[in-house]
Amino acid sequence: MIIIMNMNATDSDVDAVVTRVDKLGLRTHLSRGEERTIIGVIGDERQLDKGAISRMHGVDRVVPVLRPFKLASRDFHPEDSKIAINGHEFGSEKVIVMAGPCSVESMEQVLETAYAVKEAGAHMLRGGAFKPRTSPYSFQGMGEEGLKILAKAREATGLYVVTEVMAPDQVDLICEYADMLQIGTRNMQNYALLNAVGKTNKPVLLKRGMMSTIEELLMSAEYIMSNGNHKVVLCERGIRTFEKYTRNTLDINAVPVLKELTHLPVVVDPSHATGKWTLVKAASKAAVAAGADGLIIEVHPNPAEAVSDGEQSLKPHRFAELMTEVRAVAQAVGRTI
Ligand code: PEP
Ligand code: MN
After folding, report:
1. Domains with residue ranges and CATH for the chain
2. Rounded average pLDDT over 203-216
3. Which of 34, 119, 222, 225 has a 20 to 30 Å separation from 311 between CA atoms?
4. 294 to each of 96, 150, 264, 330, how far by Cα in Å?
């Protein structure tokens, strides 16, 4: 952090800043120019309150040098993190595909979908038992019953399960059934929930808030990691923009940007990013071409009857088609599926 003093700052203004920085165990380096003094802070500046320093007498402005996230940052961990689930590694050469219904609706629906996506080459099963719906009157999910169905489908197909956890008091229950905990877009900044999943040892699929910046996503990952759980997979799932044709706008830039900033694996959800099944294949191919480490895709045996997100759900045969085309793109960019 660099603290730039006003032209008319006095020696005691400078001393006060230096004392404040010293108290936190950080060192300072003073550069007294002809017009103003600049104070360089040496050490981990994240513990300094930038706002509080800016408001000190004689301070003109404060310029951070370090990124605000640390454990998630590539600066501190240059090589890609690999996160293994059931022999599949997020962040490796292999693109990991998670597929399944938006909501768990019945044993038959989940089993039919699970067998179909497995046959097409998916590596994991997705499905929501606790659903974060915009309206309190919409279907809220089957709850524990739904988790049991997912666990049965894992037994039957060998596909490991990712499912959403919406509140800290659900974490223990969901950990009993799930292999990976999903934090949904609406909960990306639910810090109590981030702390709670950070205390488990399950991999976490952290979805980007629909109105959150890339830096905010990384700060949320930092919450989970600072609790001890470093198994975080980031998910770009589309953000809100002025464009109304699609449900969200897939921020494809987020993939290479995240790859630059962090060592954590990055996956893309082309279903929620587009909101239309006709666009899901193109968005999936774009994601893999851009360097995504995985995809999470909604598939339903009968989308017209789906209780949630039918408009963006693929029928199983269309998912199989998608896999064939995505595989070719993956090969073209030196990846496998
Ligand atoms: C989902 O995966 O079904 C879901 C609700 O996703 P998001 O949180 O990204 O809207
Ligand atoms: Mn959904």
Report:
1. 2-63 (3.30.70.1140), 83-332 (3.20.20.70)
2. 98
3. 119
4. 4, 21, 12, 10
